[in-house]
Structure formats: structure tokens, C-alpha cells
Amino acid sequence: MMTHKHPLVSRSAVTLLLFWAGLSVIESFTLTRYAHKSTAIAGLWLNNYPTKSLFSTPLFGQHQYDDGLDEQSNRSLQFHMMNLLKIDEDAKRQSEKVKALSSIIQSCNNVLEDIDEAESIRNKESERINLPEDLSAIRCFINTSSRSKDHRNCFRVFHGEDKVSLPPNVLLSMNRPFTFLRDSLSYQSDDSEKKRGGMMYDGSEALVWCSLPGDQNFEFCSSVMDGMPFSQLYLGIDHDEDYLDVEMDVETINKLALQNILCNEQVSNEDGRTRRQCKIKMDDLNVIQTIVSEEALDDEKRTLIKLIDAAVELVRTDPLNERDEPHLVLLAHCVSSSVVASAISSWKEQQLQNQQSSRRVEDLLNQALTVVTFGNSCRSFCDGPAYIHISMFDDPWTNTLGAHSGNEEGSGGGQNAVYFHAYSPYDEEDVNQAQKATSVCSLKSHNAHNLNSCLIQYLCLIMRINGIQSFRALYDSARFVDPTAILDINPKHFAVNYSNHGELVIPPRIDHELLPAMIYATGGGSWLWDNDDESHTDVDEVLPDEIEARSHLEESFGYSVFEEIQACCRQKVMDKS
Fold this sequence. Notes:
The chain is α/β, with parallel strands linked by helices.
């Protein structure tokens, strides 16, 4: 009997072995064919069919579909931000730079499409999202896709952690789009909704953050501004990934290295490869998109142009604003300001082509649009809108690339622009040489450029000290010139010059005492870049303690103001931690 069982057992074992070997060959063939086209879907397939290939065992070594790219070639590309954002005076070199950057965007978009496709497969059976009552009537137009690219160029719906947005054509087809934008698409805390306004907001404006994805938290900014409602227009792609694994042309990398756009990267092709596996930061990809915005962010620019069209048409048809429609305000931080400036310039060119006078077009823009920038990196703001530029004196990016009061007259910031500057409490002059070398590879190298930990607190102080409740009122007050004020002595000889911005009062100690105290009270220290890095300055060394911060704020704003500010911002700081 045993002699009859052995052949049977042997045939079963052979059959099973052949089955596993055949499955491994199929797996290897499938991955070889589709590795470059759909890496994310292949990974999902392997997760659903957890088979262990024969060719990955120690007997056979590595997978047979390995394309020969070793681990050393899969390195992160670090961009020299100064050289990346500067416009080359040589038109040919600038054209080559834009062409190479466009190639990077195309490669990254292919990878993002694969990731989004895999994500959509996982979340096919997602739960129904409960929307606020004021949005339930337009539920069929609400975008609840799990794919990040579907929310690009859409207005964010602030609804928990879910990705929810509203397409711009739905908003702009409404009779009163700016009222809907202010009341239904803006972030408002429960407290601000109950009191219907705040100390620095009177409901006369629709505030739109034109933002690239990053660590800017507009819910926190709203709490710092005493519940000011902010809406958000997505520029670029807000993706959960920090890095993308992208296969790049060696020729493209060499072109960028020749123009010193890449940090610590040398021109080479010693191994004869035409392509190389690289890692690219999502933050860097979003910056690159602003440089080639004519192609990469064309849809976003068209949406901004339509918003400007609606605001100008409102001024034309209702110059006295009898309908009580909110005034449009566009806000932008860092490189996002370049996209806003480009959209305004395009709109102005379209109007001039329609045989309208330049003065008439600029007057309409000035009445219809207010633009507020924080740490901008652009010097191409056309004349017309009411510009407010806020930045720090020690911000290296705005000082080198952006529009500020130190520029030559008429250079970059727009006609009759208002500038607000101060010194941040973050002194980083003592950093060593190695840190200086790496600081040029990131826009987050200096916290003077940080929106959540410096710039928004400075704006809050200016508006709170002067009792300003809208950005248009801030602009008008800064531009005001009293015709009856006749002085018999030049103001530059005064011991203390309080009013150096029209009617606004700017205390001389605002950046040395009040700004660090406000950052501490609002919890801005939790949003510092590289706060956990030992190479950076400790928060306790640059910000005051509670007793000192309380004394500075209560001296200027009265008793219990410290507790009021902390109570308003504490929840957002806890969410961050």
C-alpha cells in the first residue's frame, strides 16, 4: 500500500510546486510590463494577492523585474530656491529652465495619477458625508472624491478631515457668489458664528486664500484674527505624500545642474544611464508649478480671472453697493502671490485689448479688488488693485525676490501699494556654515517667512491697535493724508514717530515686545519650522515667558486680554500637537 501512495504524494507535490512557480512567473511578467506605467496599482494588486515569488527567495536573489536602479541612484533632488525662483536675464537659459521644469511636472503628474487611481480603488465604497445644512441643497455639485487632483482649482469645504470641495463654476453661476462664499464656504468657529463677527471683522468682505498646499493652517489664522472667516481656493495638488519617487531623464537633471538650480548635484552620466530614479518633495513640486504657471496652473488662473470679472461687474452695475454684496479680497503667502499677480495681469491685458483705457481699467480694479500678500516672492504686481504687502525685514526670501518698501520706486509692488514691515524675533545670524548651505534649499529656512508663527500675528496687532475691521479700511487708513495737518517741524525730528502709515498708529516697540508676546499668547511657537531640530534656536530663547508676554499685552490692550487670546487659539494649537 505504501508503494501506491508515494507516487500519488509525489505527483501532488510536483503539481503544487509547478503552480507556485507559474504564479511567480506571471507575477514577474506583469510587474515587468507595467512597472513604469502603474506602479501604485501593481502594489495594490500584490497587497490583495499576497503571494511570495520564487524569485525573491534567497535561492534566486532579487526579483527578476528589478530595472537595475540601485539605492544610491534613488536620491532626493534638492532645489536651490534662490536660483529656481529668479528669472534669468538670458531668455534662452530661462526657456531651457522652464522646459526642464515642465518635464519634472509631467513625470510627477504621472506618478500622482497612479497613486490617486490606487487610492480611489481602495475608497470605492466610502461612506456618505454629512454636509452642513446650507450646502445640502447643492449636494449633487459637491466634490467628495478621494483623489487629490479632483479638488484642484476648487473651493475648499471646511468639513472635518474629509476632502470636500466645490467647483468654481458652481459658485460663479450663483446670483450672489461672494455672499455665498462668505457665509457658506468660509471657515468659522462655533464661537464666531454665535457672535456673528469679531473685533477685526465686520462682514463687509469675502476673503479668499489662494494657497498652495503646505503647513499654513487657515483655521489657526482665523482664530488669531478673532474668528475672521477665511475661504480657500486650492492651487496645485494637496497630497498626503511628502516625497514622490519619480523616474527622471538624466539630461533634464544635468540641464538644471548646469544652471545651479540643484543643490549638491553635479553633471554626470558615467554609468551610461538615460534615466534615474529620484525623490522630489511635494513642497518643491508646488513651487515649480508657480514658475511654469502658464501651463501647470492655467485652470487656477482662469478661476481667479472669473472672480475678478464678477467683482468688477458688481462695481459697474451697483457702484453704491445697494445689494450689500461683500467686497472681494484675495490673500496669498509666499510663491502663491506669483499666481495671483499673473492672473491680475492677464485680466488687465484682456480689458486693454477691448479698447478700454488703462486709467479706467485700473480704477475699476482699485474699487473692486483688494490683494493682501504675506512674505511675497514676486515683483510683477500690475497697477490697479489695492495692494497690502506684509513681510519681515529679516525675511531673506522677500528681501531678495519679493516686493517690499526697500525696492526702487515703481518696482514690483503695484501703484499706491501699502507696506507693513517689522523685525521678527527669530535671530538666526549665528547659524553655522553647514546650516547656511542647506537653508537655500527650502523656503522654510527662516521663521521670519512663517505665516502661522510671525506674519499673521503682526497683522493682528496692527488691526487690533487701530480698531480696523476690514482690509479695505486698513488700506484706506494707511493711504490717508490729512490735508489740514500743518506741522512747523519735520516729523523725522520727533523723538517717537507713532504715525508713519497715514492714520494708523504703529507703536515703535511693536516688533521687540508686542510681536513676540502675541506669538506666545496665540501658540504660534507650535507652528515653527523645524521646531524639533536641535540645530535651530529653541523656542524659549526667542519668545518671552508667560509673565512677560502677559505684561506686554495687558499694558497695550487691557486686563484679561491674555486669557481671551489663549482661549480663542488654544484648540487649534492642541489639534496641531
